[in-house]
Amino acid sequence: MKESGADERKSDERTDPGAIRHGNFMNYYQFHPAEERVRQLPRGVWQRQRVAHPARKYAGLDVGCNAGDLTYVLRDFLEEAMSQDRPEVSLIGVDLDPVLIEKARERNPRPERLTFECLDFLSEDCDGMLRRYLAKLDKARFDVVFCFSITMWIHLNHGDGGLEEFLRRACELADMIVVEPQSWRCYRNASRRLRRAKLGDFPLLKELKYTSDPMKHIEDILRGPCGFRRVTVTAGNEWGRMLLIYERKPEE
Ligand SMILES: C[S@@+](CC[C@H](N)C(=O)[O-])C[C@H]1O[C@@H](n2cnc3c(N)ncnc32)[C@H](O)[C@@H]1O
């Protein structure tokens, strides 16, 4: 029997692939091509206060790397942007979704320079694994930590305190950080899609105090508790998202 229009809509809603709790979309890069995202990055900022490493090793972390497409392109971008210095650029991507990490590993174009691990960034296991990764490269911190389109999911699932904890952890591991925050409108969309799919809202949404302008709150956290300073903020990309680029202040 054919479903009526209303029933069809209902079943669409139940199966909406965008009704998701952690942003672990399966076909994300069909809608947000990685190459276009990298075009937004400035070229001359990546080695600002870097103490030249004897072996010219440059290490990056991509938090919430999804299926790895953006991580692959970021590594090539950094290698190209610093080509004068010819560093050895290695990146590690972490994501909490095992299926996405499997996809990232299967298609990994540079296994000797790109590593993928399935971990929740807020877990102690993740911190330990990242510190071991750095130790192998003989480094204390990552030259850059990328947090593209992940802050909203952390904020919705872990609240205001969780967002601050997330940024603190990322900054502790970083000399430079790149954050691409989602707008408050995206928070409302994510909540609406869960509710429409009858999956239950984000329990902490109503308790959030950092509402309406997430980018401002993120900049306040980066400057305040994290003690970082602004390098630059890019213009919005075609879906309106800007990149906040901050760095560790030099030690006095
Ligand atoms: C919207 S996607 C963004 C993917 C990628 N950063 C980009 O912008 O192209 C957000 C990703 O963050 C991951 N994620 C969410 N919370 C996480 C956490 N606590 N630890 C690790 N990954 C997380 C999700 O699984 C998802 O793949």
Automatic annotation (TrEMBL):
Signal peptide: none annotated. One of its GO terms (cellular component) is cytoplasm. Keywords: Methyltransferase, S-adenosyl-L-methionine, Transferase. It comes from the Eukaryota. Its EC number is 2.1.1.-. Residues 1-251 form the Bin3-type SAM domain. One of its GO terms (biological process) is negative regulation of pre-miRNA processing. This is RNA methyltransferase. It comes from Cardiocondyla obscurior. It is an enzyme of class 2 (transferase). Residues 1-16 have a biased composition (Basic and acidic residues). It holds the Pfam family Bin3.
